[in-house]
Design a protein that fits this description.
Strand order of the largest sheet: 1-2-3-4-5-6-7-8-9-10
CATH topology: Lipocalin
Shape: globular
Helix content: 10-25%
Number of strands: 10
Number of helices: 2
Radius of gyration: 17 Å
Distance between the termini: 33 Å
Structural class: mainly beta
Oligomer: single chain
Largest sheet: 10 strands, antiparallel, barrel
Number of domains: 1
Amino acid sequence: MVETVGSATLESGTAVFHQFFEACVGSWQTERTYHYLQHSEVERSRTEFAVKPVSIDLKRKVLSDNAYQEIANVDELPGFELGFHTVSESGEEVSQELRMLFVIHRCEAGLLYGDYLRDRAYTEARPIISDFRFDPATRELMMTTRYTKSVSVDSITLVNPRLRIRKILNYLRPPEGQPLKDVALVGFGVEQKVS
């Protein structure tokens, strides 16, 4: 699971990472605000999430769908099954289900880095491998996905086991090797666990 040598910092960070995923299991309601900068529009939406642990068979399928390298101890990979239904204030409805896994590769300055694999991307209906960074001190998971025309930087901060804060920045995809600079969408959300 981890390519870089395991130190006490890596082990404690990995333990917090697994606790993050355990806390995310359950039903969540989210109120979000999206700012579309190219159109000067603001939109609100409400989303209901159902988060479940992902089975070992589905973990293997996510790895296979992404033609990912062999992983020892697949059962130890953190991840989950996610189903959600979103209704925007305009009445538009979107539902989706997907499975995701996180493969830790290294620990630097106390932060965990690795690959974030999904069997279906949010904006492009295909398996996809993205990057993630997790900060055990703040319990913030930041995921960066390079789509064909955009780059999405999605952050989930677990404030406590019943409250998460979400931030989404979608950039226009720059030419290869160039930094992200042109923001097309900014989203903010408050996610609360439902009893």
